[in-house]
Write a structure and sequence with these properties.
Elements lengths: L1 H15 L1 H37 L6 E5 L19 H10 L3 E18 L2 E10 L3 H4 L13 H5 L4 E4 L1 H8 L8 E4 L2 E8 L16 E5 H7 L7 E6 L5 H16 L9 E5 H44 L1 H9 L4 H37 L11 H27 L3 H5 L4
Parallel strand pairs: 3-7, 4-6
Antiparallel strand pairs: 1-8, 1-9, 2-3, 2-5, 2-8, 4-7, 5-6
């Protein structure tokens, strides 16, 4: 019964304070929309940036041999280091914190390849069996990636990217076909699953042909690795694993253990952390902007409630003279305040959902598909609740403290 009367009174107040009510509701709607939409956009941007980074591999570390910069045990500086295939086993054996590891040997561009009458050049990469999963170069359903037996037996098998499939095979299924690389026959064992690649290492994975590391080194008479790639079992232990690798190589190549320039390292997890921290900071900033907007709207709500209290002072006096309890008076004004804030919040939620949907339908590559998350909705709801309580409490307390006689004499 009380709730029905409260709602009727609330609607009457809105009609009497149309301009103030509109401006206040607009502030609440704008603040809610700002919080939800800006956080959704920053979350979408974070997903895009992580997707770009993870296309090359997730939580992987790439290492290239560098040059020494510190004299050590009679050796001077500027000594060039080299990676050898046996280093992979040594690093793996001395570091139980490594989940997967692979050597890599590259031959870029101008490598002649042929399938039937189609001839072109390709980028060729020789790797171990763990390389494909680490680099997110996963096979399509009817194929496979290079296996340990392929590397051990120096098999002439090749795993190709989607670009090579399109150039040489068209719509034909290449798995099982003979593909000539430098006039040497290779059997195609798999095709890479299509993936979004904005960032890449030298060339996109779609343009690569991948063969066993031992086969490539035999073909081109190589005895050195170009790089080593690994993934730690626990990302939190990544720094410890890398420090252990530095110590291992310092002993193997006889250089100073503190000479970090001897190895060039790219730890993708560092960029991962940076992206997450940057996105969190952006979300906090956007959230603060929206919160201040809601606070300004809350001040407008408080002003409207104070005006309403003054206009209904005699009504309050009559109610209290007839025995109405103070908490009932206070509850009425609190209820009306919450109704106004909830109304603005609901409309704001609807507007932000519509904006996110429109942006998603526009398919803007740089923005992605923003969506209102449960966390953002919960935080916004809490902020609106706090604003509603603070905006309504003080006018409601003032109304409940009127003395009946004074309220009836009120001439405001």
């Amino acid at each position: 019964m009380y709730i029905k009367l409260y709602i009727i009174q609330f609607l009457n107040d809105l009609r009497q304070q149309k301009l103030r009510a509109f401006l206040t509701l607009f502030g609440l709607i704008w603040g809610t929309t700002a919080i939800l939409t800006l956080i959704a956009l920053s979350e979408s941007q974070k997903r895009n940036m992580l997707r770009d980074l993870h296309a090359i591999g997730e939580n992987i570390v790439m290492m290239w041999p560098g040059r020494t910069t510190m004299p050590y045990r009679g050796f001077g500086t500027r000594r060039r280091l080299k990676f050898y295939p046996e280093d992979v086993a040594i690093i793996s054996g001395s570091n139980p914190g490594i989940e997967k590891i692979s050597g890599e040997c590259d031959v870029w561009g101008e490598i002649p390849a042929r399938y039937e009458k189609v001839e072109d050049t390709i980028d060729l990469v020789g790797v171990d069996a763990d390389w494909g999963e680490m680099r997110n170069m996963l096979p399509q359903a009817n194929g496979r990636f290079i296996q340990p037996a392929d590397v051990e037996l120096k098999r002439r098998v090749v795993f190709i990217g989607t670009d090579i499939q399109e150039r040489f095979f068209g719509k034909e299924d290449p798995v099982g076909k003979i593909f000539y690389i430098q006039k040497i026959p290779f059997r195609v064992i798999g095709v890479m699953q299509p993936k979004y690649e904005k960032s890449h290492h030298w060339s996109t994975d779609a343009e690569k042909a991948v063969i066993p590391l031992t086969t490539l080194m035999l073909m081109f008479n190589k005895n050195e690795l170009d790089s080593i790639i690994y993934r730690p079992t626990d990302v939190l232990e990544g720094e410890y694993v890398l420090a252990n690798i530095h110590r291992t190589f310092a002993q193997l190549r006889n250089y100073h253990p503190d000479d970090r320039n001897a190895l060039h390292v790219w730890d993708t997890s560092d960029q991962d952390k940076w992206i997450r921290n940057f996105s969190l900071g952006l979300q906090i900033f956007f959230g603060i902007v929206g919160v201040f907007t809601v606070i300004v709207a809350g001040i407008g709500v408080a002003n409207i409630m104070n005006v309403i209290v003054e206009e209904r002072t005699k009504e309050i006096g009559i109610k209290m003279a007839l025995g109405c309890k103070r908490y009932i008076i206070m509850l009425q004004f609190m209820f009306e305040t919450f109704l106004m804030v909830i109304l603005g919040g609901i409309i704001g939620f609807g507007v932000s959902l519509a904006v996110c949907r429109l942006i998603g339908q526009a398919e803007l590559e740089q923005i992605g598909t923003p969506a209102v998350t449960l966390n953002a909705a919960f935080i916004t709801t809490c902020i609106l609740g706090i604003v509603a309580f603070l905006a309504g409490y003080f006018p409601a307390r003032r109304a409940s403290r009127f003395k009946p006689v004074e309220a009836l004499r009120w001439q405001g």
